[in-house]
Amino acid sequence: MNKQDKPLRIDIVSDVVCPWCIIGYRQLAEALKATGTAHEIHWHSFELNPNMPAEGQNLRDHIAEKYGTRAEESEESRRKMTALGAEVGFEFRFSDDIRTYNTFNIHQLLHWADQQERMHDLKLALFTAHFTHQRNLSDNHVLADIAAETGLDHCEALATLESQRFAKDVRDAQRISQEQGIQGVPAVIFNRRHLVTGAQGVENYTHILEQLAEMQD
Questions:
Q1: How far apart are CA 199 and CA 158, in angstroms?
Q2: Is this structure's pTM higher than 0.70?
Q3: In this predicted structure, which of 16-30, 121-135, 170-184 has the lowest mean pLDDT?
Q4: Pair 142, 122: CB distance under 8 Å
Q5: What is the 3-state secondary structure (H, E, C) of 37-67?
Q6: What is the phi/psi pair of residue 193, to 5°?
């Protein structure tokens, strides 16, 4: 068991419409629990589809256009992600009409929540809202509802989205990630030094945490 005095700093660059981001996080969370690692998590914004229109696009159509994925390949990928999610207690409910969205407003809302030390709760709620309940994340009122469900103020959440007052902060944060060479997500940085990309699996994350603990001894 890792009993270091100083919590392990974990920075996670991700997007809430990225299925591998929630899979990777839940795998990491399992490894943190198994190793008893004291930690603090800091989320950072990344837009998978910055040029996506506000209303979003059918996910299967988007994947086909972006990656050239055939329908059978998409279906197999969904089965794999659903199984991996179930292994770590996350439920994916993919359907033919599930959409993906432009997430710039979402990241502004998360930035606002971070000022109240509630980003983590809201981030996880948004993953569930999108992949489990297929809520319309392009609708500011829906986003404000989700914020309120996590204990944040509905009116202030909606005002934050409509004012775009955190637009520059989000752009600045994204620029910093790009300057650090992060081009895909999930990207996990341990103690500001060790970058791990992709959903690594519980076993690999456990091994990484054990190695980091040895380095701190």
A1: 32
A2: yes
A3: 170-184
A4: no
A5: CCEEEEEEECCCCCCCCCCCEEHHHHHHHHH
A6: -130, -35
